[in-house]
Amino acid sequence: MNIAEKLRKATSPLFTFELVPPLKGKGIDAIYKSIDNLLEFNPAYINMTSHAADIQYKTLPDGSIQRRVVHKRPSSVAASVAIKYKYNIEVVPHIICSGMDREETENLLIDLNFLEIDNLFVLRGDPQKGSRVFIPKEDGHAHTTDLMEQVNNMNRGIYLDDTLKSPQVTHFSMGVACYPEKHLEAPNMETDIAFLKKKVELGAEYAVTQMFFDNEKYKQFVRRCRQEGINIPIVPGIKPIASVRDLSLLPQTFNIDLPEDLVKALSACKNNDEARQVGVEWSIMQAKDLKAFGVPSLHFYTLGASDNVRQVCQAVY
Question: Which of 199, 208, 207 is nearest to 232 (CA)?
């Protein structure tokens, strides 16, 4: 069953969460531990993030500069497959424009098709580290919508090599991201919602929001989307605050506002343990209110840690 069907058929809000592939050189045990910690809440699916390579420059002894392409995390494919077949849970890998050309994207999609992973979460991805402007790889995609077009072509049996005879038609289903407080690069909310509408026209079957901490902004965003004819499920993304540093880090990184009450509570914390508990309590409040609003699912951003998400779920599910 594709993810959109699960969301539409749910009689109460589903539970889903996002994981990050392990750093290069690390095993998958930490991921299994995070999943084991949350299994009792019956996750409907798990998202697996994808990360483009970094470009690093090293000065050699002779004074010349060496350019290196460094993958700090492995592909999301292997981790996704390992999780799917160990736990019999649907896994949704992120497919990104960043760091990929069209040929590499096609080969990745072929691998996923072979592995019977048909649910994709399609994103542009972040700009290269140190850059404020997104620059696609040569012959890569500059926008999520361009990447979606390639997925749609494969769903019609159209591959980059037009000499193929009777190529297999794929059956990918796509989810996309959306932004209740608008994307950092969007000039205004009207433009951002127009981009989301274009994604829906290209086949996006559901959307998951960027994390937010003010439920009213999510509710206003959903109402506005409905007014614009965007009727796909819009899943709220929740991240429990985990440290005092999040007070400044999250707004800078994700272009989001923190409500005044949350800022006051975090500012009064003497250490990260106190801040973590504030984060759990705030997320519980958010989750209960969103359930009452009638959301199709609650999606949690774990960033590799699941203990605080577990505390939230114990109070909500």
Answer: 207
d(CA 33, CA 87): 12
* E runs forming strands in 124-172: none
246-255, 280-289, 308-317: least confident range: 246-255
- Structural domain of residue 99, as residue ranges? 14-316
Q: How many C-beta atoms lie closer than 10 Å to residue 296's C-beta?
A: 21
104: domain CATH number?
3.20.20.220
Report how far residue 298's alpha carbon sits from residue 292's, in angstroms, rounded to the nearest whole number. 12
Q: pLDDT value at position 297? A: 97
Kindly tell me the number of DSSP H helices and DSSP E strands found in the chain: 11, 10
Percent of the chain with pLDDT over 70: 95
Instruction: With CA atoms as reference, report the closest residue to 283 among 267, 296, 266, 271.
Output: 266
Beta bridge partners of 95: 122
Phi/psi for 316 (5° steps) reads: -110, -35
| pTM, rounded to two decimals | 0.92
Q: Which of 237, 296, 1 is nearest to 119 (CA)?
A: 1
Q: How many domains does the chain have?
A: 1
How do 297-301 and 91-96 pair as beta strands? unpaired
